[in-house]
Amino acid sequence: MPNGSLSLPARLCLLAWDPARPGTPDTARHHHLVRAGALTELAQRGLLTDDEGIATPVDLDSRTGDAVLDGLLDLVRESMPRRWRTWVRLHARVTFDAVREQLVAEGYLRAEKRRVLGVFPSVEYVLARAAAARALGEETRYVLEGPVPAGEVSQRDAAVAALAAAAELRALGPRTSEPAGTGARREDRIAELTERGGAAAPGLRKVVGEVWRAVSAETARAVAPADG
């Protein structure tokens, strides 16, 4: 997968920007997704483990060298024990904002100052490297829909594809337009890729479940005004 130096949450954050449909993704769904990616990477690195549903630090001293990951790891260490589903949501925007700033610093995104109604200052984040985002989306779709057995996909690529699909990112294409039966096959593939998480699989299963629930909640809130 391209952009190999990017962390798992950074890849998910970049995937949230769809080159084909400009706009700034900044919703609870995206916040939860990026936080889920950070939790997953910490689990894959062996720094968080699953203890009967609790996200548990392995020790008090290990560091990753990534400011976002280390910040989250410190937060988990310093807080009372919590379940994965709680950490997916709790202060998730803090992680999203920090990862977004990393992408700006590395040149993937560009922060543009604007004024709302010509008066109120605002910042809009736009793709600065659309080709990189497009390539990442294509690679992720290939992992999700291609012929390569899940067991031959790297743990990180498997996690990116499983979580991005769970969040129904626009860059992966809409599920509603899929032929009959394709949705079930995709869900089976997500399950296989989740298992591919290896040592992180117990926690990863819980995190993916939380992202699915977050997506459902966001969709329900979006539909409710039209129904009411």
From TrEMBL:
One of its GO terms (cellular component) is endomembrane system. One of its GO terms (molecular function) is phosphatidylinositol-4-phosphate binding. Keywords: Golgi apparatus, Lipid-binding, Membrane. It is found in: Golgi apparatus membrane. It comes from the Bacteria. InterPro entries: GPP34-like, GPP34-like_sf. Its main location: Golgi. It is a peripheral membrane protein. Gene3D superfamilies: yeast vps74-n-term truncation variant domain like (1.10.3630.10). This is GPP34 family phosphoprotein. It comes from Streptomyces pactum.
